[in-house]
Amino acid sequence: MWVLAQLFRLFMLNTVECNQMIHIHFICRGNVYRSRLAEAYAKSLLKDDSDIEISSSGIEAKLALNGDVDIDALKALEADNLKKHLAPSWQQTTQDLIDRLDLLVFMNDSVYDDASKLYNLPKDKCVIWHIKDVDNIYPQVKEQVDILMSKYV
């Protein structure tokens, strides 16, 4: 319920005029699992002429500790025929990237807390989900993306 209240607040504060591009960005640690799932699934919900841009990054992606994409994420995306929406590689979160975004969705409090130590985060554009970095999180990611995207699609 907290997530819904937070999304409603952001939606009301950041109402986007029709035909104005909005950039939604998912952030986790390595950008190989949760944020990549969220990005691919959200992209699959968009129409071809959408004014929404979707992307993702990781606050520790440049370390490339887990390779390009987690095997469980790849399996989940293949099962739903969403692999075509998967970004070709991980992306490192940067201040320049953050400054260009309209909505930043952090996968959990821990990622948000660590990111806030590294970057100047615009609090009015941040949403924090509560998705742990564990196996079988795809249904939870899909549910949260559905709630978020229902505001824009």
What does this structure look like?
The chain is α/β, with parallel strands linked by helices and 153 residues long. The chain has one domain (2-12, 23-149): Response regulator (Rossmann fold, 3-Layer(aba) Sandwich). 39% of the residues lie in helices and 14% in strands. The protein has 6 helices and 4 strands. The protein has helices at residues 2-13, 34-44, 71-79, 95-99, 109-118, 138-149, and strands at 22-28, 52-58, 103-106, 126-128. Strand 3, helix 5 and strand 4 form a beta-alpha-beta unit. Helix 2 (34-44) packs parallel to helix 3 and helix 2 (34-44) crosses helix 6 (138-149). The longest helix has 12 residues, at 2-13. The chain starts with a helix and ends with a helix. The mean pLDDT is 84.
In short:
This protein is an alpha/beta fold. 39% of the residues lie in helices and 14% in strands.
| Assembly of the depicted chains | single chain
The name CATH uses for the topology is Rossmann fold
Number of strands: 4
Summarize the biggest pleated sheet.
4 strands, parallel
- Structural class designation: alpha/beta
What are the SSEs and their pairings?
Elements: H1 2-13, E1 22-28, H2 34-44, E2 52-58, H3 71-79, H4 95-99, E3 103-106, H5 109-118, E4 126-128, H6 138-149
Parallel strand pairs: 1-2, 1-3, 3-4
Key structural traits:
single chain, 153 residues, alpha/beta, Rossmann fold, four-stranded parallel sheet, 6 helices
